[in-house]
Design goal:
Blueprint lengths: L1 H21 L3 E5 H8 L7 E7 L5 H8 L3 E3 L1 H10 L2 E6 L4 E7 L4 H8 L2 E4 L6 E4 L2 H14 L5 H13 L6 H10 L3 H13 L13 H11 L5
Parallel strand pairs: 2-5
Antiparallel strand pairs: 1-2, 3-4, 4-5, 6-7
Length: about 220
């Protein structure tokens, strides 16, 4: 079931990517699909795209996607204008596609410029994925924003640090983690990656000792 879900997500992402490129847009795939190619694979039924698309070609984009996709073009137009979010659905597989309008300042710009084409099929098809360093940084940002309680985000970060270790740009990671206030989280994630730890949930420091004990007991080794 997990393998089928992963295959569906990749196939849907390839369809969306082809439609984007057909109308002159640019993109990268992020989220759990990207981290599955850079770290440990895990099943997902949604795909995250960061997207730059000419506003005048949205109708063409919808046509390029075809009738198997349901999409709200006005919501997408707003996301592209404000670096916000919109979504679509691939109806045959019930796969959700989250679109995030490209940001043009600071880290958002650096992240987009470093995207890279990556083979995702044995037959040679490629998707443009965010760089693995940016998977780590962005997931740490989401982890912090969510109160440092997301086991899935933490596991994705640790697995990318561990499996992609030989090709990570440590200077880039250190620079942006410093600028974004993520140094301590990155240090902890690197320690977990070095030790092979991937299941232990990192609970916020403001939790009491009793809360930490309950949280660890309920999460260490728990299937997700």
């Amino acid at each position: 079931m997990a393998d089928r879900a992963a295959a569906d997500a990749v196939d849907v992402a390839l369809l969306v990517a082809a439609a984007i490129e057909r109308v002159g847009g640019e993109y990268f795939v992020g989220g759990s699909l990207a981290s599955s190619f850079q770290g440990e694979p895990r099943a997902t039924n949604d795909v995250d795209f960061v997207l730059s698309l000419p506003l005048g070609r949205l109708e063409e984009f919808k046509a390029a996607l075809g009738p198997d996709f349901e999409i709200d073009l006005e919501m997408l137009r707003g996301a592209l204008r404000t670096a916000g979010s919109a979504n679509a659905f691939h109806l045959p597989t019930v796969t959700k596609i989250d679109f995030f309008g490209r940001g043009y300042e600071g880290y958002d710009s650096a992240e987009f410029e470093r995207r890279r084409a990556t083979p995702v099929k044995p037959s040679g098809e490629t998707l443009v994925l965010k760089a693995p360093e940016d998977t780590v940084i962005r997931k740490l940002l989401w982890y912090r924003l969510g109160g440092e309680v997301s086991d899935r985000q933490w596991r994705d970060v640790v697995s990318v640090l561990r499996i992609s270790r030989a090709r990570l740009d440590d200077d880039y990671l250190s620079s942006w983690s410093g600028r974004l206030g993520l140094q301590e989280l990155l240090q902890r994630a690197r320690a977990d990656a070095a030790s092979g730890c991937r299941l232990r949930r990192r609970l916020p420091r403001h939790f009491s000792s009793a809360q930490r004990t309950r949280g660890m007991n309920s999460w260490v080794g728990a299937p997700r």
